[in-house]
Write a structure and sequence with these properties.
The protein is mostly beta strands. It has helices at residues 36-43, 107-110, 113-128, and strands spanning 2-6, 22-25, 50-54, 60-73, 78-82, 87-88, 100-101, 136-148, 168-178, 180-182, 184-188, 194-199, 205-209, 214-217, 220-222, 228-239. The radius of gyration is 17 Å and the shape is globular.
């Protein structure tokens, strides 16, 4: 289902991010103009995510929904196509290689202007940082809420320092943090030496290469006696051709 055409001339607007292994960004830096009311509307959808992971005591610690898009890249435009696919697997040597099925992002958000702009800018960052001409991308979008409880941590990287099995990723664009400590994003070089680390706050995200670099995010814990949570968008970008 074709849902948007984009103008490749936007490449010149982001040339500052060319030839970067990783980019710390905000939507504003990428030229994504955010409407406060529309973002608040989208944030409400995090209350409707499905349980993805429970801890040993049965408490949900990660909720998720998923959407998959293809981007066809031509000389004159990009075409963003929603595939409706609800399965996802990763090219990695651990349990994540097994195909998983996720509940889809609610239909009313599939064409959300913020999401489509984020996909468009992710496509541009990929083109700018690729050595080869790109004709088609597969983009998997993950809408995730981590939940932690008093004395119960939540892990978004239970596999430890890892790669996602993609070409490029947005490991996290943080949409909201509430009553938590932790959640430090760490990037490592091919030898697993730290090259960057930062706690991401709302409207901060990281785009990075995923073939050579590694990454990890530390667990979150709640402050005091109340539940805490961290809402993010993550993107896996695979070059198809």
């Amino acid at each position: 289902m074709l849902i948007r055409k984009c103008n490749p001339s936007l490449l010149s607007d982001l040339k500052l991010f060319k030839n970067k292994n990783y980019v710390l960004f905000t939507p504003k830096k990428l030229g994504i103009m955010t409407n406060k009311l529309s973002i608040l509307y989208f944030l409400q959808s995090y209350n409707n995510l499905e349980i993805d992971i429970k801890n040993k005591n049965g408490f949900p610690t990660r909720l998720r929904r998923y959407a998959n898009y293809n981007v066809d890249i031509n000389d004159n435009d990009f075409e963003i196509i929603y595939t409706g696919k609800n399965t996802f697997k990763q090219d990695v040597p651990d349990s994540r290689m097994v195909e998983r099925k996720f509940e889809l992002i609610e239909n009313k958000y599939i064409r959300d202007n913020f999401i489509l702009n984020l996909i468009e800018k992710s496509t541009i960052l990929t083109i700018l940082n690729s050595e080869n001409k790109i004709n088609k991308l597969d983009i998997s979008l993950h809408q995730i809420r981590q939940i932690c409880y008093p004395n119960v941590y939540s892990h978004n990287s239970p596999e430890g320092i890892h790669r996602d099995g993609a070409d490029y990723i947005i490991s996290a664009l943080v949409m909201n943090r509430s009553n938590i400590d932790g959640g430090e994003s760490i990037i490592y070089d091919k030898d697993k030496n730290i090259v960057f680390n930062k706690i991401l706050y709302p409207k901060e995200g990281i785009f990075q290469e995923d073939k050579n670099l590694w990454h990890y995010v530390t667990p979150i814990k709640s402050k005091g006696e109340y539940i805490g949570y961290r809402d993010i968008l993550g993107i896996d970008i695979k070059v198809i051709s």
